[in-house]
Amino acid sequence: MESVQGILGSLGVRSEFIKRESFKYAPPVGGAVVDAASPFQGAIEFARSGRVCGVPPGKTLLEVAEMCGVGIPAGCRQGRCGTCITKLLQGDVHMDSEEGLKAREKAEGYILMCVARPRGNVRVEA
User: Fold this and answer.
1) pTM, whole model, 2 decimals?
2) For residue 39, what pLDDT is reported?
3) Which of 20, 62, 78, 87 could be a cystine partner for 113, CB 3.0 to 4.6 Å?
4) What strands, in cross-sheet order, belong to the sheet with 43-46?
5) How high is the pLDDT of residue 60?
6) Angstrom distance (rounded) from CA 22 to CA 48
7) What is the pLDDT of residue 37?
8) For the chain, which residues make up each domain, given as ranges?
9) What does the pLDDT read at residue 65?
10) How far is C-alpha 9 from the geometric centre of its chain's CA atoms?
């Protein structure tokens, strides 16, 4: 990917038009501190669905949505990055990767649920 990005750059292709996606796992960095007595590392409120669910340690927000029966479009596992994009309404998350988001989407508060892990309680638009 680095080579192709370099070649495209040398041909004058602007970086915002170069899309990258990598299918690798990186352990979360800088996650929330978890209370050893609690089975959850926070809670997620799904505003549109009206559900609130605890987030077990190590789970992404998409995994929690699936466990709680909240339908979020997600083609992530089939290589369609960005389909699980959701607006973060409150709270803070750490994303293992932000490559599937455009700068404008980040600025507007959107997150990728498949790689987002809460830092405490969060509220999302889903």
Assistant:
1) 0.69
2) 65
3) 62
4) 51-54, 43-46, 122-124, 85-90, 110-112
5) 93
6) 31
7) 47
8) 24-124
9) 94
10) 27
Instruction: Let me know if 17 is exposed, middle or buried by CB neighbors in 10 A (0-12, 13-18, 19+).
Output: exposed
What is the structure's pLDDT at 21? 65
Identity of the residue numbered 104: R
- C-alpha R_g of the chain: 16
Which parts of the chain register pLDDT below 50?
A: 24-37
CATH number 3.10.20.30 given to 24-124: yes
CA angle, residues 99, 114, 88, in degrees to nearest 5: 85
**SS3 per-residue string spanning the chain:** CHHHHHHHHHCCCCHHHCCCCCCCCCCCCCCCCCCCCCCCCCEEEECCCCEEEECCCCCCHHHHHHHCCCCCCCCHHHCCCCCCEEEEEECCEEECCCCCCCHHHHHCCEEECCCEEECCCEEECC
- Given this model, what pLDDT does residue 86 score? 95
